[in-house]
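cron nightly-structures :: item 1 of 1
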Amino acid sequence: MQTHFTDADRQKPHIQEAERILRTCVHCGFCNATCPTYQLLGDERDGPRGRIYLMKELLESRDDNAQVTEETRLHLDRCLTCRNCETTCPSGVEYHKLLDIGRAEIDRRVPRPMAERAQRYALRKMLVEPKRFKALLSLGQTFKPLVPGKLRSKMPPAPVDAGQRPDSQRHRRKVLILEGCVQPGLSPNTNAATARLLDRLGISVTPISEAGCCGAIDFHLNAQDDGRARMRANIDAWWPQIEQGAEAIVQTASGCGAFVKEYGDMLKDDPAYAQKAQKVSALAKDIVEILREEPIEKLELKEHQRLAFHCPCTLQHAQKLNGAVEGVLSKLGFSLTPVKDAHLCCGSAGTYSVTQPALATQLRDNKLNALEASNPEVIVTANIGCQTHLASANRTPVRHWVEVVDAALV
């Protein structure tokens, strides 16, 4: 793709990065074929190719036309950042990086309306602090009838009891685990089940309470400086254990895992953290990356459930781990049902289900129809956001796949 930036523009790091990405695009349109929002809306501007053109025009323009900028924002806001287009793209366009640049540029030129800014600020403050989120969640569950309709539909029931975690010093092999921000409140059993499962395989899990939100929520709501501050805080929290030989940093939420794996890239220009961030990204592993390398065949199941697996976008498109969980579940003896259009997003996409509820609900219902087509007993997934979003329809039970494995073992 040809670009028309001035020499002065090319001195700016974000323009340099944008131009590099834009020039890899050959505007073939393959991306539109797998874009969830283009399939729903049929508008070129709501597909990756159209959004790339919109961002190109925005970044090249010197005219801060508020109406044009607002229209561009509308179409960029509708993007799920599912990265399905990146999996499809034959030219390797790093679309999600361009999207971060484009969204930040729009907000710089034309601030959002006050109501939108207030919503996004509230989401950031409510979701990223685990204790605050857990307290607000408990309050919302207690007074659910008084919660506004849009949020009430997303209010989950009380979580499954987490049970006991094994002694974190029991084994010589040790890994760290990212506790996360919303997962301790929504599904505390996920990480507890992970610790029990790894304990059976001779691996101890060391929780680091000082490590909190991975930074993705702040970053993708265009508070990028706050997101990077959370990255640095997590690196500081993990570093002493890394120096003592922790062999991995395990994530059970694929959205967090995808983001932590990009710490090295996002902090590459920070002289104090660049090298540490690269090390953290190299150590970051989704739980399936650990389990598939261990002798899981020695584990015995007391029950063999019929499962449908929803592979989150952050697992298949961002981390390129499509088929990995299915392989582990099959090896353990679970029966997996076929899922049509498994590459498509469920509509959760971080805070998307709150900021774009109509599209998110349509995508969720389409995904559930595909998952339920062969009548599974349980739907399993690998990301707390997808789990909560799919479960909000109150149809087939939805759980994290590690919890189901832990409960099924003898």
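cron nightly-structures :: done
The radius of gyration is 21 Å.
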